[in-house]
Amino acid sequence: MSNDSTNRGDSNSIEAHSYEAEHVHSVYESIAPHFSLTRHKPWPLVAQFLGSLAPGSVGLDVGCGNGKYLGINRDIYIVGSDRSRALVGIAGRQKGNRSSDVMVGDMLDLPHQWARFDFAISIAVIHHLSTRERRIQAIRSIMATLKRSVEAAAGGRALFYVWALEQKNSRRGWDEGHAQDVMVPWVMKQRAGSVVGADEKKTFERYYHLYRRGELEKDVHAAGGVVMESGYERDNWWTIASPQGQG
Predict the structure, then answer these.
(1) What's the pLDDT tens digit per position in 57-84?
(2) Terminal alpha carbon distance of the chain
(3) What is the CA angle 202-206-209, rounded to 5?
């Protein structure tokens, strides 16, 4: 994403929405089955977070994708949502997700009651929003669904994961000095019998904002949240946060 398009998105949310519709939403609709085949192994810290929740806890998986986290802890109930109808359909067909439900939803305008949920997770999703204002809005939208308490530690908790800029040891090789707004290719081989032939490949470009150290915590604070823990795992920055305010 060029600096010019980023600036246009900052000044016009309609243009940012259109940009994301083309370079995020339509891409995932197109690649959903192939993408889902690569997304089955839970990330350790996410599984640990879900496993630590009290039995009977009710929460959200915002940007649930193919639903790989919905069945991690059968003693809690999760409502998963995703902008992609194709991925929600796959999540709904996953066997064993009996302590969960799924729906199509926009993380910038979640259809849930405020201050009612014990927890939320949003794993590798917020970085697809093309302006800082929209990323903060998404965090604020998720935090608004969590139970509040005078003591932040006693309220609901949200776990956020975003791709890191600092990935110099990964195959991507990004690090400080590289652009934070990038297009990341997804290469999908065409199936036999397709118009272009079995041996040809199609590449889809997805937009990502790469977070640098400390940036996610700043966005959580800007959204009115309290950072409880944060760290780095698997080329991602993560944070566990709670909402501010009275219960």
Answers:
(1) 999 999 999 999 999 999 999 999 999 9
(2) 41
(3) 160
